[in-house]
Every structure is written in C-alpha cells, then in structure tokens.
Amino acid sequence: MLNDVDRTQSGGPSVAIFRSERYAAMLLLGAAVLGLILANSAIGPALLTLKTDHIELPWLGLDISLGHFVSDGLLAIFFFIVAVELKRELAIGELNSLSKAALPAIAAFGGVLVPAGIYLLITAGSGWENGWPVPTATDIAFALGLLAIFGKGIPTRVRVFLMALAVLDDLVAILIIAFFFTSDVQLSSLGYAAVTLLLFSGFSRLLRPRSSYILSRKPQWPLMLVMWVLAVLTWYFVFQSGVHATIAGVLLGLVMSRRPGGRAVHAIEPYSNGLILPLFAFSAALVAIPAVSVSQLSPAFWGILVALPVGKLLGITLAGWLSGLVASKFGGVSLKIGDLLVVASLGGVGFTVSLLMNELAFASDHEVVDEGTIAVLLGSAIAMVFSAAFVSWRAAQYRAGKIAAHPHDTAEPESAPLF
C-alpha cells in the first residue's frame, strides 16, 4: 500500500486530495454529518423518499432501491479494494508469515469478540441480540486518516500494525456478511457467478505489467472493457443468488492477478475515497432522529453505543497485550502498551462497515435501523475524540524524544517507561 505522501504525489493534483488518507477521512465525516443534518431539515422527507425509490429492470429481474444500490452496488467497489490490499498483504506485506500476522490477527479477533460480548450482555433478552456484528468493525479509512492527522512522529511500525489489524478486521466483517446475512441461496446464480469470476481472473492475467490501461503500442482497453463487463455480471449473479452483493467485490479482488489488481486499486481509489464512500456515508446517515426520550431508546442503541468505542479499546488492547507477552518470551515482535492503545483507540471508529452491518442486522425494523445508525455515529464520534487526544499525546512524546525509537518493539526492560 502506498503511504500517505506517495498517495498525494501520484495521479496529478486533480486526484491528489482524494488519495490522501487525512482528507478522505475528513470528507467521509463531512458527508455523514451533512446527511444527518439534511435528514432532519425541511427537505428531509423528500430525501428519505428518494432513498427508498426503486430502480426496476423487470427483464433482468432487478428491483433495487437507490439506498441499496449504494450499499449493495457501489460499496462492492470499496470491498474490491479491501480484497486486493488483503491479497497483497498476504503475499508480500505484513501478513505474509505466521510470525508477522500473529499479533495483529489476535488483536483483531479480540477487537471482534469483546465488542460482540458487551453488546450481547446489554441486549440479552431484548430480541435484538442479532445486532452483535454491528460494533465489531473498524473503518480502515477513518482509522488511518486520524493517525495521519494527529500522529505526526509516531513510528511507521504503528501505522503498519494498524493497517494489518484493520485489513484482518475487514476480512472478519466480510465473513460475517457472507455467513450471517445470507439466506435462500440460489445455487444456479452462484454457478454463473463462478464462471464469470473465473473468466475475470483469466483475463486479468493477460494484462501486461507496467503498461497503460488506455494507450500503449497494443492498447489494452478492449481487454479492460471485457473485464468490466465480467465484473458487473459477477455482481449481478451474486446479487441474484441471495448472497450479499458486496461479496462480489471481495471475490473479484481476491481472484484478480496481484500486480494488475494493485494498478486497478491505484486508479479507482480516488473515486472510492472521493465519491463512493462519502455517498454511502451520506445515504446511511439520512436518518430522522427519533422523537423519543432517552429511556425509550432500544437496548440495541445502548449496546452499539457502548460496545463500539469501549469494546474495541478493551478487546484490541487485552488481546494484543497478551499475545505480545507470549511473543516477547519467544523473541517475537510486540508493541509497547502505549502504541497498542493508539491502535485500539483508533479501532473504535466503526463507521462505514458498522453502518452496513447495522442495515443488514436490523433490516426488519426501520426504527431500530435509525437508532442503530445514530448509535454507530455517536460511538464512532466518541472513539474519534478519544483517539485524537491520545494519538496527539503519544505523538508529542515521540517528537520530544521521551520514547526511544527502535526498529521493532520487543519486551521492554523494567526501567523502560510503560508508555
């Protein structure tokens, strides 16, 4: 993955701002705030009606609302990017060996299990226990963006660890969507999707390395056009199969040849950061604030609100600390507890994937969907404020030289500062 400087220096000034993690996070937050404000303004009812308007193509058997077109269709492009980056990390990145992947993997699982457990404790007996996946997600764009904004001076190893953890967290989210939000699977449609997927994979291996997508001595745009068609067909067949359509993006990213996949991500990333994710955040945040007292809010609201910032902080910190103790005894790599807290505080920003999980988990009750959306936004906001303060303090310590810099963090001597 390109670092923040590389992103802003590639692609020209017209797209530079959308390659920057810090600006992408700001844009995502701004879109969500705008959606919430407009939904509760005079034009709110018209926007909410527009969101539920349907696109109908009877000859294709396609009937999808505009809101679901964004969350099921456009968001598949974001999951394609996640899958390509996951594949790269597994092949040549920070997850390409068991020793490298162990610590972020254990921390990621802690950051899933503890929030889910807290949510289930709060909602026990309420009938809304099925919302446990909502607080388990980490928003990779927001987390890296906040670190870029407030973490000047924090070592690269902390960013790499956060990135690895967030990618694994997204993998868990993908598996949750695939296994818990899939019903009435149509095997014939999945079979057609498998065929188009295999063709897409094969054509991706015909792309020449380091060549232009559009202009070269032997132009590749006909091949790219065929691949776009195959990608759309794969999405359509997955959508018709009953499996959540964003899984199509994941599958396409995993089967695409790695180097062409990296170039594809580089090309579409500005559009994902600058258009798709903000549009999803705007659409998901189009929620009329319920006219109920605090005591009338559902247990699902309180479960998400507490489990997202608190559960993530506790789960990632405890699991990472315990696995770090084991790793240090065997000469492995670990993080100082202060750096681990940086990652854990940023992990509490669920946002994009949590909003998607919320829509899927409470699809049968629109009022609870609205409450869940507000809980995700408030929980993520709490995590943002805490992480911004903690990351800034930690970065100031590094810049002041109060923390010794090491190529890798290992078990600290007794005289070394805990933070």
From TrEMBL:
**CC terms in the record's Gene Ontology section:** plasma membrane
Q: Which domain of life is it from?
A: Bacteria
Please give the Gene Ontology molecular function terms for this protein. sodium:proton antiporter activity
What is its membrane topology?
A: Multi-pass membrane protein
Instruction: List UniProt keywords, sorted A-Z.
Output: Antiport, Cell membrane, Ion transport, Membrane, Sodium, Sodium transport, Transmembrane, Transmembrane helix, Transport
Task: List the catalysed reactions.
Answer: Na(+)(in) + 2 H(+)(out) = Na(+)(out) + 2 H(+)(in)
> Which stretches are transmembrane?
23-44, 64-86, 98-122, 134-151, 160-181, 187-207, 219-237, 243-261, 273-294, 300-328, 340-362, 374-393
Where does the record place it?
Answer: Cell inner membrane; Cell membrane
Q: Name one GO biological process term.
A: regulation of pH
Record function comment: Na(+)/H(+) antiporter that extrudes sodium in exchange for external protons.
Q: Which PANTHER family match?
A: NA(+)_H(+) ANTIPORTER NHAA (PTHR30341:SF0), SODIUM ION/PROTON ANTIPORTER NHAA-RELATED (PTHR30341)
Its family remark reads: Belongs to the NhaA Na(+)/H(+) (TC 2.A.33) antiporter family.
* The protein, known as: Na(+)/H(+) antiporter NhaA
Organism field: Microterricola viridarii
Q: Which gene encodes it?
A: nhaA
